[in-house]
Amino acid sequence: MTTISSSFNKIGFKLKKHSPEILVVAGVVGTVVSAVMACKATTKVSDILEKAKEDINSIHDCAANEEFVEEYTPEDVKKDLTIVYVQTGIKLAKLYAPAVALGALSIGSILASNNILRKRNIALAAAYATIDKGFKEYRNHVVERFGEEVDRELKHGIKAKKIEKVIVGEDGKKKKVKETISVVERDSLSDYSFFFEESNPYWEKDGNYNRMFLLAQQQYANDKLRANGYLFLNDVLDTLGIPRTKAGQIVGWIYNPDNPNGDNYVDFGIYETYRRDEEAFVKDKAMRERFGKEIYERVVLLDFNVDGNILDLM
What we know:
Blueprint (H helix, E strand, L loop, with lengths): L1 H16 L1 H24 L2 H20 L9 H73 L1 H9 L2 E10 L5 E10 L9 E4 L10 H22 L1 E3 H8 L10 E4 L16 E6 L1 H6 L1 H7 L4 E8 L4 E2 L5
Antiparallel strand pairs: 1-2, 3-7, 4-5, 5-8, 6-7
Helix pairs in contact: 2-4, 3-4, 4-5
């Protein structure tokens, strides 16, 4: 009995979990079936109307017959016509009642599904806001105690790496020198952090040009934020040649000077660093000669200061 009860509970939980999808499918199917039923009922309307027409003609014939003038008064005519109209309406209502009832239930199922999803989204938004608030408070404590540099290193898993690279000295001879660089792994990035790298269509080998380009796009994003009052992350990614993300559809920035919780500005969090590139080691001989066995490419880490889910902030 315990096993059976547990199985039923699991099935019930799965049904509850997928209830919005089930209700939508049921609503769509019910709508189609109700339309078919209504079409089928329409084929029988002519018989009902024809019968009503015959009864009405009979009443008018009797009213026009001089033999029944005294017995069949105008009040009787009105009464009989009313009865025919009411009976015809009842027959039509019964004919379409199943289709209308099923259609109403189908629409109700779709609305119920939307209501469930809306409540879940509200709960998810509240949970996200709580987590985001706690994370920001934690980062503020880290910044206050250890500084912004340590906060960035902890957030993105940035580590110092000693490498050997080959340089050409003043005497024209090649020699190996050791250098310490900061390295960040791609897997350590959050949903709001991205690499601006060589594969980007706007990337140039000149580091100063890349920085000027990013600062210009950052200024453009701030102008757009102040003009529109809101800005989605995907809108910014489009200007940088970075593919859109699912999170970018709902997170972004809100411009509201009266709201003390928002930054009211867009910050790309531009940080120049290195990333290990195993693919370049195989393809690029110059990179192998420069760094040895491990290859690191120079990239720009972008860490956007999004306000969170702006759909709930509007």
